[in-house]
Structure formats: C-alpha cells, structure tokens
Amino acid sequence: MKLETIDYRSDNCAEQFVKSLHETGFGVLSHHPIEQSLVETIYKQWYEFFNSDNKDDFLFKPETQDGFFPASISETAKGHSVKDIKEYYHVYPWGRIPEELKRNILKYYESTNALAAELLSWIEKYSPADVAKHYSIPLSQMIENSQKTLLRVLHYPPLQGDEELGAIRAAAHEDINLITILPAANEPGLQVKTKTDEWIDVPSDFGNLIINIGDMLQEASQGYFPSTSHRVINPQGADKTKSRISLPLFLHPNPEVVLSDKYTADSYLMERLRELGVI
Ligand SMILES: O=C(O)CCC(=O)C(=O)O
Ligand SMILES: [Fe+2]
C-alpha cells in the first residue's frame, strides 16, 4: 500500500480524497488553501517558545486542559506503558495563549477549521447512501462553532540518549475525534499502519496537508471510514539532534451531537478519556 498525494486543485480531488480515507484512514493533499508561510512562522515561533522558560508560566490546568504539558507528564498511548518523548501545548481560542503567539495561531485555527468544514462536506457527499443515512446531522455542522476542537502544538525534543527503553516520539495510537488535520512536520517520522500490519511512511513533503479519520467518525460511519493506527518514530544518526514540531488540529463535534445509537460526542469522549486515565 502507498499513500497517494492528491492535488487540491484537481477536478476529481474530493472523490479521490474520500476514497483514500475509506481505504487507508488517511488522505494527503497538496496545493491546499492553508498558507505555508503561516505554518512556517508558527513552527519557528513555537520552537522558540518551547526552548524558553516562558512555557512554565502556562502550565496546563487539569480542569480545562488548556496550556503547556511538559514531557514529564506527557501522554502514554492506550495499551502502552512507556511515555512518549514529547511536550505540547493545547490551544483553544477560549484558553490561555502567550500574547506574542496569539495572532498567528488563532489565524491558523480559524482557517483550518474552515477547510475542515469543506473536507467534511466532501466526506458526506462521497459516503455511500447506506452509511450517510446514519449521520444524525450534516458532518460539517457537527463541528460548527465547537468549543472542543483542539489545536495541539507538539515539540519532540532532540534525543539525548537517556530516553526510557522502548520510548518513541509518539507510540502507535488512534485519534479520538472526528477528523484530524496536520500539516507535514518540519522533520519526518510519521507512519501509518496498513491493513496487513506494515508500517509505511506518510508522504510528508513540506507543504503537504495530512488528514486522518478519528474514532468518532469511524463510529458515526459504522466503520466505513477506519480510524487507523499511526505513530511517530525516532530519528536516526545526525537527525537525532533535531527537534520536530507538528501541529495537529483535532476536530471535535459539539458535545450534544449524536454519533450513533450508542454515543453522543460527549459520552464517547468521556469514555475514552476515562480509559486513558486522564479524567
Ligand atoms: O506529530 C505527528 O506527526 C503526529 C501526532 C499525532 O498523531 C497526535 O498527536 O495524535
Ligand atoms: Fe494522532
């Protein structure tokens, strides 16, 4: 299996993109409307932030989950026992954001949310009728003005050689939300698991946009769109000294949105967070 990069400007882009999501759980877009210079500026600004002491003034609040999560308390993926080698910052428009970083990151949050609504309308349009009939409301409407959509700025620090045995930058996991939009990071490492259990690289040419299905859309589509496992592997050789910055936007429906006979977005999220032990 190989992930094809799809040109956003091509005539059959929407159909090809949704086909890729159905077959692999991932879709990769080039020539999309997200401004690459904005992404580059954000990577630069946040790299400086992660390398400053300023981050300690923005330590996350357990009740609201906005702010800085240091490596010492960072995530352990479901089913794993070793922590990931990463630190990150949770950006919500209603949350705390360092003043000098606000303008660019909120601009990114907004423009990527707008693109997400378009991508969800493509997904709806190219869902088979017997799948689409179960969507409780249009998919793009599920995320409208959602306060739950989370922009995570991730910093994977250079490897020091003293990392815990078996630790990797991000252990294999699935995302909980509806879809995730992720610009290619400044360094490689992202891999996706195929149906035959092989790990393949996600084409991460700088400028690509990577979209993946999360568990909530898998639930709402009764498995038609698979939430596939992905991970970020450690760099080798000289690349060990390099930081990696990435910027996933996790699109979350409004809490009251009905996903399936079993779950609303809120009950689904609560069940997953309880499993992860973070609430
Ligand atoms: O850093 C990446 O490229 C992917 C991060 C990711 O999968 C996640 O935070 O859920
Ligand atoms: Fe992920």
Automatic annotation (TrEMBL):
Pathway: Alkene biosynthesis; ethylene biosynthesis via 2-oxoglutarate. One of its GO terms (biological process) is ethylene biosynthetic process. It comes from the Bacteria. It is an enzyme of class 1 (oxidoreductase). One of its GO terms (molecular function) is metal ion binding. InterPro entries: DIOX_N, IPNS-like_FE2OG_OXY, IPNS-like_sf, Iron_ascorbate_oxido_reductase, Oxoglu/Fe-dep_dioxygenase_dom. Residues 147-253 form the Fe2OG dioxygenase domain. Its EC number is 1.13.12.19, 1.14.20.7. Signal peptide: none annotated. It catalyses: 2-oxoglutarate + O2 + 2 H(+) = ethene + 3 CO2 + H2O; L-arginine + 2-oxoglutarate + O2 = guanidine + L-glutamate 5-semialdehyde + succinate + CO2. Keywords: Ethylene biosynthesis, Iron, Metal-binding, Oxidoreductase. SUPFAM superfamilies: Clavaminate synthase-like. Its cofactor is Fe(2+). Belongs to the iron/ascorbate-dependent oxidoreductase family. This is 2-oxoglutarate-dependent ethylene/succinate-forming enzyme. It comes from Shewanella maritima.
